Amino acid sequence: MLDISVIIPVYNASEFLEKSVASALQFDEVKEIILAEDQSTDNSLEICQKLADQYTRIKLFQHPDKGNHGAAATRNLGIEKSSGSFIAFLDADDYYLPNRFEAEKKIFGDSKVEGVFGAVSIEYLTEKGKQEFQSKFNNASLTTVNYPAEGQDVFKGLLGLTPKTFGTFFHLNALTVRKSTLQKNKLKFNEILRVHQDSDFIIKLAYHSYLKSGIIDVATGVRGIHDDNRITKIVKYSPQYNERQFLFWNSLYEWSKQNKIDHDAAQHIDLQKKAFELSVKKGFSKTAAIFMAIVRNPKILKTKYRFTYTHS
Question: What sections of the protein cross the membrane (predicted)?
């Protein structure tokens, strides 16, 4: 039987936390649930303590200084404190479905597989959250990939370098990974990134580890969409959006320089980083820099930065 540590970073999630934890407790494969609390300003800490007192499988941890350090650092804390052979993640406002680990029980029988990922659906918890999510993600009901994949095809697919469109990022809630591969490859969440640290982690994981798709056509978990989802607050192509995209791609760029990734992947990451680096420039210097970048490599026009957008 798998022995899984489920890591739940907790910040101001009192309304949802008990349902999230209950969804993980239903599985015999879950050896422990790590509640990594990040200085919530509501009563989340009290709920965490109550749950830890009630269930022996639940363990509560905080940062050494009891401070607020963000989702990346809090997930890293959970990984550090975990004792299971496998790691799974769950956001405190989301929950697992009963089929969450069905694929893992079969696929991890192959010792070469180091991680399994699947699909998650969404549940609208507030009308405002629904409107913000649908305006940004076009009412995508399932966060998944378009076809089964494994090995380096997952890495290439996440970067958009496969002949067929791989699809959206699979969600962290649907990932189960051997802890040994995180230790062997020294993989952690980048604590500089306040958003996109999950995408950054997944891409690096897909390069260093052998990942395989599990259940990708139906949901294995549910994301709660509400007023306080951070990812829906950022207006696409706004200065804040471009800055955070730059930090994300720059993190991958700095990582790529330390690893012997193939030319196409390295060039793709480099162009994405350069494009969003250009986005912070202003006036004539920006126009000139964009022109020179296009002359050097016209492929920069195919990056995620929209060059036709008018910035101040």
Answer: none
Q: Give the residue carrying structure tokens 């991680």.
A: 115
Question: How far apart are the C-alpha atoms of 124 and 144, rounded to whole Å?
Answer: 18
CA dihedral 168, 173, 176, 178 (to 10 degrees): 100
Give the span between the Cα atoms of 229 and 139, in whole angstroms: 15
The mean pLDDT of the chain is 89
The residue behind tokens 């022996």 is 56
| Res 309: pLDDT | 43
Give the Cβ contact number of residue 82 at 10 Å: 24
C-alpha 121/C-alpha 219 separation (Å) is 5
Strand partners, 141: none
pLDDT of residue 128: 77
The contacts of residue 309 (CB under 8 Å, 6+ apart) are 237
CA distance 312 to 309: 10
Length of the chain: 312
Task: Give tens-digit pLDDT for 11-32.
Answer: 999 999 999 999 999 999 999 9
pTM > 0.85:
yes
- Give the single-character DSSP code of 236: T
So what's the pLDDT on residue 133?
74
Map residue 40 onto helix, strand or coil.
Answer: coil
Beta-carbon contacts of residue 52 (< 8 Å; ≥ 6 apart): 35, 58, 59, 60
